[in-house]
Each structure stands twice: as structure tokens, then as C-alpha cells.
Design a protein that fits this description.
two-stranded antiparallel ribbon, single chain, Ferritin-like, mainly alpha, binds Phenylacetyl coenzyme A
Length: about 325
Amino acid sequence: MYAQLVETGVKRLKSLDEMSAQERAFQQRIDDEIKIEAKNWMPDAYRQTLIRQISQHAHSEIVGMLPEGNWVTRAPTLKRKLQLMAKIQDEAGHGLYLYSAMETLGADRDSEIAKLHNGKAKYSSIFNYPTLSWADMGVVGWLVDGAAIVNQVVLQRTSYGPYSRAMIRICKEESFHQRQGYEMLLTMMRHGTQVQKDMVQDAINRLWWPALMMFGPSDEHSPNSAQSMAWKIKRQSNDELRQRFIDQTIPQLELLGCSVPDPALKWNAERGHYDFGEIQWDEFYEVLKGNGPCNQERVATRRQAIEDGAWVRAAAVAHARKKHNKIAA
Ligand code: FAQ
């Protein structure tokens, strides 16, 4: 596996001969499936790759609250409102676990968050699309959390201990999110009016392709995959996970009685997988560059939230100081 990655990787990997004794021992530990912990020696590039991935992941959870927060005041029933609020609070919790996991690598939370606010840090492309109707809340739960789970289940076995352990808890919660989204859609499709059914189909039409883009560029265009797979930060490739998501989602789509906007989608008995059409990669890269439908709005909202909360943080620090001084006196 390692030798094969050395040959095919988009970024060239070091061969075992080129590694220092310390690097070889590190790679051996990874190959032996022993987790890397915060205090263990690690190559700087391993540390930086994790800080990059975990911070992007944390930002995604935090920005991911915004498209759903948009619908809290318009939830149709008390039950739906409670479900939605619980889900959004979970996403905040995921962001906080992940920032903590990132800090174990020596990264500074405030500086990483500052990169999000000045537009330098990436977060999942999906959250740069608008949520236009109530049906989007079901489709986000079903497809977006569904895609996130397929990716994150594998990350439970990632080589860095604190990230792997955060993922185990996060996956349990994401699974509830996916189910509440799907149950909402089933209710609309089975008991709803024609207008509600059309709303579900329209939400699927808008979010299907962006959900497939969540898995990242195809393997041959993914610069980080080869090294991340060799370090077992990633355990399966972007394309493998995308295919798994499609294979498990289409039967659920059929049960709903809906369709996806892809005329090329077809079961391929020989491969044992669904074939699907070409992803619009130009659109994906435009969103990554900051030109998606909601990029500016999302970052501006986060920036505003930090500014609005400044007095709360100042008050908390003043209170903590006062308490500390009292104890010290
Ligand atoms: N969006 O070489 P690769 C959620 C970037 S959580 C934006 O393949 P890598 C929960 C990538 O960063 C969703 N950027 O990169 C929720 C890299 O840029 P860089 C988030 C993307 O890291 C649900 C460049 O493209 N999940 O949804 C995307 O090996 C509902 C080249 O790509 C995670 O973050 C994208 N879709 O693989 C919350 C999971 N794809 O940094 C609220 C952890 C790629 O070199 C509501 N992350 N890029 O400048 C991962 O598994 C990986 O980082 C991948 C990308 C698979 C996302």
C-alpha cells in the first residue's frame, strides 16, 4: 500500500529510505495501528495536516449551524422546533470538541478562528448554499449529515488519538441528525400536500450535487490524500466514500418516492455500485474560492457573532479575575 502511494501520490511522498530513523519509527507505529497521542513525537507535516483538517472540520460544524438556525423561528410544530434546536446545539458541541482536539496539537484556537473570519480558512462547501424552504431542514439532516457520517465513521479509526475519540461521540449524534431529517421527509412525502411533496423534491434537486461535493475532489485531483492515507489520517479515499454514500442513499431516496437530478444515475450490476454523472467541479472550486451563493454572508455572520459577544467574554474574564483575586487575598 505504502509503496503504491509513493508511486501514485499527487504530492510526492518520502520513501522509507529517505526517512530519518525517527520518521521510520513513527511510520511503523502508524502501520502497527498504534494511535499517536499529543505528547508523542510526530513529523511537523503530520501535525500541520491535522491542524488544517481538524480546524476546517471544526469551522464546518460552526458555520453549519447557520443554514439551520435560519429556520428555528419558522419550524412548523413544537416537536420539529425542539429537534432542530437540539441538532444545532449538537453541531456547536462538535465544533468545540474539534477545536479542543486541534489545541492538543499546539494550535491556537483564537488564531485559527481569526483565519475563518478573515476568509483564509476553508470550511465545508455545502454550507455556502442557501436553505430556501422548510424541506431543506429535512434534506440537510438526511443528505448533509448522511454524507458527514459516511466520512466521519471512517475517521473514528484515524491515527491521531484525540481526533479519533472526538469522532466516536460525534458520529453517534450525527446519526440522530440523519434520522430526524429522513423522518421529517418521510412524513412530508407520505402525509403532506402536493405542495409539500414538491418542496421536498425541489430541496433534493438543489442539494444533491453539493452533498456529493462534500467528499472533496476526485482522488486523482486530491493533493493531500496520498500522504494522509499513508499516515492513516484518512482511511478511505474521497471517491470511495462518495460512492458508498450514493450506494446507501439511493434506496432511501426510492423509499421516499423522490428522484435525484442526475440522468446518468444507474445501478451497475457488474460493479455492484451505482454509476453517476459528472460532478460540476468548476462550481466546487468557485465555492472554495469564496464565490458560492452564501460565502460572504456566512463569514460576515460569524464575524458579527464574535463582535456581538465581545462584552460577554470581557465580563466573564473580569468575573474570573475578581474571583481569583479574592482567593489570592
Ligand atoms: N469543502 O486534498 P483534498 C458536517 C479542500 S461536517 C471545502 O482531498 P483533504 C456536520 C481541502 O480542504 C462536514 N473544502 O483534502 C454538519 C483541501 O484544501 P487545503 C465537514 C474542501 O483534506 C452537518 C483541498 O480542497 N467534514 O457536515 C472540500 O485530504 C449538518 C484539496 O482536497 C469534515 O471536515 C469541501 N467539501 O480531504 C454540521 C471531515 N473538500 O486545505 C452542520 C473531515 C476538499 O489543502 C449541519 N475532513 N476541500 O487548502 C476530511 O475528511 C477531509 O478534509 C476532506 C478533504 C475529505 C473534506
